[in-house]
Amino acid sequence: MKKLLIPIDGSKSALRALAYALEETQRYLDVQIHLLNVQAPLLHVWPGKLVSPDLVRAELQREGEQLLADALSMANAADVRATAHVRMGEPAQEIVACAAQFGCNAILMGTRGVGVLEGMVMGSVAHKVVHLSPLPVTLVK
Questions:
Q1: How many Cα neighbours within 13 Å face the side chain of 37?
Q2: What is the CATH code for 2-140?
Q3: Domain definitions of the chain by residue range
Q4: What is the pLDDT along the chain (141 residues), one digit of tens a residue?
Q5: Which residue, among 116, 117, 129, has the nearest Cα to 90 in the 3D structure?
Q6: DSSP assignment of 14-52, as one string?
Q7: Least packed by Cβ within 10 Å: which of 27, 59, 85, 87?
Q8: What is the DSSP string of 1-23?
């Protein structure tokens, strides 16, 4: 069985990557796609003082599920088996860890077109995934 991990962040490029994957997998009979949304942890601790951490986590989970809804619909419309997951943490590390956990053969993800200078200074998630993952990573612009 071919298993692909496709991170979904709500961007058009992520949905283009999914569309590309759905088109490419039409020739395979046994394909499973894992759609993953990673919610970054809060940068400040003060919201935890105003609102319970469980409430914050539930809201992040809800946001992730909303971002995955369109992607899941696209996969279902293409008659491709897909599972949606929401995780919390540093995006690149979670993407690589989930690909291993789910037994994926490859990671296919969109790029947001961050410029070279900005990518070097801030580091893009796609760039980090390419360097962290032992699996093949396909980037869709």
A1: 22
A2: 3.40.50.620
A3: 2-140
A4: 899 999 999 999 999 999 999 999 888 788 999 999 999 876 655 655 677 778 888 999 999 999 999 999 999 999 999 999 999 999 999 999 999 999 999 999 998 755 444 444 445 899 999 999 999 999 998
A5: 129
A6: HHHHHHHHHHHGGG-SSEEEEEEEEEPPPS-SHHHHHS-
A7: 27
A8: -EEEEEE--S-HHHHHHHHHHHH
Q: What is the DSSP string of 82-135?
A: EEEEEEES-HHHHHHHHHHHTT-SEEEEE-----HHHHHHH--HHHHHHHH-SS
What 3-state class would DSSP assign to 78? coil
Which tokens in the block code for residue 86? 């929401």
Structure tokens at 66: 């909303």
